Each structure stands twice: as structure tokens, then as C-alpha cells.
Amino acid sequence: MSDTETSSAVIETFNRAFTVEPDAQPMIHTDRGSAYCSSMFNDYLASKNCIHSMSHPGHPWENSPIERWWNDFKLIWINKHPRPKTLAELEQLVKGAIEYFNTKRADYLASKNCIHSMSHPGHPWENSPIERWWNDFKLIWINKHPRPKTLAELEQLVKGAIEYFNTKRAYTSKNGLTAEQFRNQAA
After folding, report:
1. Nearest CA among 97, 68, 65 for reference residue 84
2. Domain end call among 123, 141, 175
3. Is residue 135 part of a domain?
4. Looking at the DSSP assignment, which residues form a beta bridge with residue 116?
5. H or E element: which one contains 99?
6. Helix (H, G, I), strand (E, B), or coil: what is residue 178?
7. Is beta strand 177-178 parallel, antiparallel or unpaired with respect to 51-54?
8. Helix, strand, or coil here: 23?
9. Is 154 among the domain residues?
10. What range does the domain containing 91 cover?
């Protein structure tokens, strides 16, 4: 945690994560904060073989899982605790919230036979990046290909769609660029 969000602070956070999982090559989804748009951060992700996905400008719902977490943090957690006066107190408050939302609240929901989800039931837009991708996959990709008969055929169909939507399909909302070209332009 740092006083401001900087590329260096974000990279340090990822370094700590890669210390725990050194072979991970995740897709990282972020908003368009300056730390995440910096060439320093994008070069770092490329050096770790990560794919960087970013929300469209002015579309915070595309980053809804973390937006939802911060909303719960502010409405549920902050309101029940004294306002932190130092960065160290804030860090303890955030750590406590992470512990609570990931274990105690999740355990409570499980004990009530509830499905723990970052999005509200019946609100698919809260998970819009993947919902949009699956919608495009079903409406654009599946309709143009024969229905898979085996798991191997389905895997190939999904791999082809990932390749197509990331490197071949141009998007009006991305100034006519493919997703990959758009990400590289932002970097």
C-alpha cells in the first residue's frame, strides 16, 4: 500500500503475488488508471507473459467485481470502524476487510446455503466483461460454426474464438482496432 497509486507500487504488488505463484500467467483486468496504462506496468506484465485487459473509458461496470468489493468495503466495513488516521491504520482496516469478506462473510453465506458471488443474482452486467465476451461468443462465433460434438471440439472452438476476438475482430468502440491492437496502443 502506498500514498498514491503508481506504476512502481502496482508492480511491487504483482511481484509479491508472483513470489507466491511464480509460474502464473494470468489475464489481468484493470481500469484505465494511469498506473495501469503506463508502459512500465505493461512492459512488466509482458515480461511475465500476462495478458492485460482494460475496461473501456467511462465504463466502470466493466470492472464490476472490484468495484463491488470497494462498494461493500465502504458501505459495510468502513461504516462499522473508526476512520483511519494513518496509512498503517488504513492498511490494517483493508486487511481486516479482506479477511472478513473472503472468509467470515463467505462462511456465513455458505452456512445459509447461499451462492457466494461477486455479482448480485440476476445482475449479469456486474460481470460485464466476461458476460459480453460470452454473448459475442454465442451470437457471433457459435452461429458461424458447426455445433461441437466432443469436448475436444468445444475446446478448439473456444480457442478459436479467443484468437479471433483478441487478434482479428476490429471493434468500433476501440477505434476500429482489434482488442490486442487497442491494448498495445494503450500501453
Report:
1. 97
2. 123
3. no
4. none
5. helix 87-99
6. strand
7. unpaired
8. coil
9. no
10. 61-123
Statement to judge: residues 65 and 47 lie in one domain: no
Find the distance separating the first CA and the last CA of the chain, reported in whole Å: 23
Cα dist from 80 to 83, 90, 92, whole Å: 9, 14, 14
Is residue 116 scored above 50 in pLDDT? no
b vs e for 137-169, b when ≥16 Cβ sit within 10 Å of the residue's Cβ? beeebeeeeeeeeeeeeeeebeeebeebbbeeb
Let me know: does 10 contact 38? Beta carbons within 8 Å.
Answer: no
Q: Match 476490429 to its residue by C-alpha cell.
A: 170
Q: Are residues 66 and 50 located together in one domain of the fold? A: no
Instruction: Say if CB 46 and CB 71 are below 8 A apart.
Output: no
Rounded Cα distance between 17 and 80, Å, is 29
For 119-139, the pLDDT digits (tens) are 555 555 555 666 667 777 777
Q: In this predicted model, what pLDDT tens digit does every residue of 127-178 receive, in sequence order?
A: 566 666 777 777 788 878 888 888 889 889 888 888 887 787 766 666 777 7
> Rounded to an integer, what distance in angstroms lies between the CA atom of residue 73 and that of residue 89?
15
Residue 53, φ and ψ in degrees, nearest 5: -110, 140
Asked if the structure places residue 24 within a domain, the reply is: yes
Looking at residue 44, its pLDDT comes to 94
pTM score over 0.70: no
Euclidean distance between CA atoms 147 and 134, whole angstroms: 16
